[in-house]
Amino acid sequence: VRFHEKDDLDAWTDDFGKHHPDRTSDEKLAADALEALQEAGQITITSVNEGKTNRNPQPPFTTDTLLQAANSTLGWPVSKTSRIASALYHAGHITYIRTDSTRTNSDARNKIRNHIKEKYGESHLGPGVLGSDAKKGASNVQDAHEAIRPTRPSNTSISGANSDWKSLYVLIWARFAASQMSASVRERRDLQASVEGTDKALNGTASWRTHPGWEAVYAQYHGDVKTSPPDSPLTDGAVWKIDVSEDNPFMKTDETKPPKRFSESSIIQQMKKEGIGRPSTYVSIVKNLGNKGYVDVERNSLSPTEKGRTLWLQVVPFFNEQNEADGLFTPQFTSKMEESLDRIEHAKMSGANVWNDFLEEFRAIHNIALEEKRKVPTIRQLALLENRIPHLDEARREELLSGKKIGDLTGDEARRIIKSITDANAENGILPASDKQTALIVKLSDQSGMDLDESLLLVGSTDIAELTGGREGTASELIS
């Protein structure tokens, strides 16, 4: 149902400003349209616009597009794709796998075109597709190698290999073959219809493929494809009965959802867009996010861990807020640094100069970050105060906090209060764990693979702020 036109005050647009006429925030309007369809049981075609659509093939694989395609088509994580692709390369089945280029060897193109002509006919040959990297002046391309393709294009598969090798090889072969094939063609009918009981028009589309083109080599991935028009007449005035045997018509209700989380393959796509990483480092960068405990992979999505959130929310702002457009932890900074390294490699910049400039810039950023850090309490300081303050009597709490809440304290105030509590405990023979001890405990816990809470239980503690210092304290006991 077409609820709103683009210029309607109630028109529904997404976060990117795209108008969706089949969506509305007016529940009554949607309910009335549903009721009209249910009661009428049929629609009348009022307009039919004829046309054709072409779907063009994609260029041969680069490193990032191979990782993405294997993830979406085969369901593989990037580490598996990288491992199998490396094995195929070393076995001589495919070309080098670390490349940003979509260029291919003319001899290889001629061989695959001959194969296409013999098997599918000349009508399936196309002009050949290249990516934007092949355009003059393209940047950020590691162009020493051609695209990822079969070394023997006439081999549609490989014998004597395991199923994973075959699956990835066939995908690579199909992509290379498709890049030299014609576009697929579909007949398209844009329909408009009316229904008794509402003045809102109904929009729809019918399409069927008339020429497979490159899709001929992708048949195993595309499933069933419509190749004939629908049974219902595609003419003005035609009456279409609504099939009540299905859940039809139905009203879909949803709520605005947050942006979808990155998968391993989609974050590599974003990295390439931002100029972060190179074909030789994409997989290792993503792998390190998990190894360092910043993200977990949950149902093919990268989910930030508590450690990752702490880093981004508590540490990064000290560095990035100095220069939001080009801060130390921004894609722009990383991209600029990688571009400098590329220029050093090609003798267009001095490595010593780049290094010295970076040191000067980092030193200035780091010093400012340290100053900013002192203005707010650390997570450990807040945890320590949350643990210790409630155990003090009311008069002592008032003396230390001066009516403030713990979350409203400045860094200097938090340090002063902690020192006061520490000094008082020292007089009574109780010392808290030092910053050095707690940092070492966190590091050892990470290295052992144990959760920090599990580690603390070894000495009967449930909070790192409860650990005591000194040689005989629980912190020393846990470290030993």
Describe the structure.
The termini are far apart. The longest helix has 23 residues. This protein is an alpha+beta fold. A hairpin with a 7-residue loop joins β2 and β3. The protein is built from 17 helices and 6 strands. Among the domains are: 88 residues, Topoisomerase I, domain 3; 116 residues, Topoisomerase I, domain 4 (Orthogonal Bundle), CATH 1.10.290.10; 50 residues, no CATH class. The chain has a 4-stranded antiparallel sheet with strand order 3-2-1-4, covered by helices on one side. Strands 5-6 form a two-stranded antiparallel ribbon.
Summarize this structure briefly:
This protein is α+β, with helices and mostly antiparallel strands.
List the helices and strands and how they pair.
Blueprint: H1 27-40, E1 42-55, H2 63-74, H3 78-90, H4 106-120, H5 163-178, E2 184-194, E3 202-211, H6 219-222, E4 239-241, H7 264-274, H8 282-291, E5 295-298, E6 301-304, H9 306-320, H10 331-345, H11 351-373, H12 379-388, H13 394-401, H14 411-427, H15 435-448, H16 452-457, H17 474-479
Antiparallel strand pairs: 1-2, 1-4, 2-3, 5-6
Helix pairs in contact: 2-5, 2-7, 3-5, 12-14
